[in-house]
Amino acid sequence: MLGIDCKDAILASAKLRIGIDEILESIVARVPPPRDTTSAPLRALIFDSYYDPYRGVVVMFRVVDGVLRKGDKVLMMNTKTAHEVTELGVMSPGQKQVEVLGPGEVGYLAAAIRAVADARVGDTITHAAAALAATEPLPGYAEAQPMVFCGLFPVDADAYNMLRESLGRLQLNDAALRFEPETSTAMGFGFRCGFLGLLHMEIVQERLEREYNLDLIVTAPSVVYRVTAADGAVTDCVNPSDLPAHRLRIEEPFVKLEVITPSEYNGSLMELAAERRAIFISMSYTTESRVTLSYELPLAEVVSDFFDEIKSRTRGYASMEYSLIGYRPSDLVLLEVRINGEACDPLAIICHRDKAYNVGRGLVSKLKELIPRHQFEIPIQAAIGSRVIASEKLSGMRKNVLAKCAHAPLVTPSSADALVSRLRRRYQSQEEAVRSRTCLSVDFLTRSPQAVEAS
Known about the structure:
There is one protein chain. The protein is α+β, with helices and mostly antiparallel strands and about 450 residues long. It is built from 10 helices and 25 strands. The strands form 5 sheets. The chain has an 8-stranded antiparallel sheet with strand order 5-4-10-1-2-9-6-7, with no helix packed on it. It is globular and about 105 Å long. Residues about 405-410 and about 440-455 have low confidence and may be disordered.
């Protein structure tokens, strides 16, 4: 199924205690021993880390070159932070303290490191002293870049400081989490957060709600677009409301997608891929009943509900994985939602021009169901620039205050006209006063961004 040569596979079962000695002997025979580089400058590769409330960050690493001793002052070569090793040990399987670790050995260290971001996975550890430090870090380090962004806003404005502290605590254990303050006219103060993917976003949201008892408004997920402005400047656009008005082109991230599925679901998955602007690459049968489909498609089409659709169409039997392959120009537009004549930034999205009408129609239709009725009529519009492509009207609940003047036999015509005019002016002044207020309530906003985008 996976295309692995099985001729040297060892028959083993931990339950039946079969093949254990053979596996250990094979490790000794097949895995090459580490080189003797004791005299070389220290270089150790970090492969994991976690935050301990009493010891700080505990770093798991493998020594490649040199020797590390307890009490040494070490330097993280990529983050440029220096720390003194207060605890050094190995896993056997629990933590066992030792005094020294040499080439090829795997262990852990604690050095009163305050944040996981100071000891990132893939970084190289060396001595802080210039005379003993390595000149080149180990190859392969790349800082984790967020690929999915969304806005987090507290339902209660007084919980803003609590949300900021909670995100800071989560970042101690999660170096890939990024956040920065964001302000919305509709939802107040919050944070724009970056995640590695949809699963990462859902985990952070669940932890904030369960561990810190926060009620959150989460906007629809989006990706990073690369925008070339009219003056030639290239910028990364995370928030759709920050898109420059005058631009030459917009590039969006593309991914290479591989879907492994039973062969009877090929047609349904190909239809789904065509709907999501996917480019077909190849189709290969790993077995008679299982096939691998390869596509290239925009990341924005994946981060919405693509995985859910795959599971639904294949009854849960399909699996997928994707990797970023770069940016490509696309015919993208900024779709704005205007409620009562005012743009609603949290509902603005960047989408393909061919899908703009259908997305806009779905947005305004869903908003008409979610927004509570008011005393006056509320227009709901989806627009690209100054052109409105979809519109709905939410009828008002106002009482017809002029109806009682229609049948008034005891009132003279002149006095009736004066009464109608006075009531009409009063109604118009009340309507203008109400219109000046926002028509979006927190109850609606707690549902709208995700519910509307899902529709």
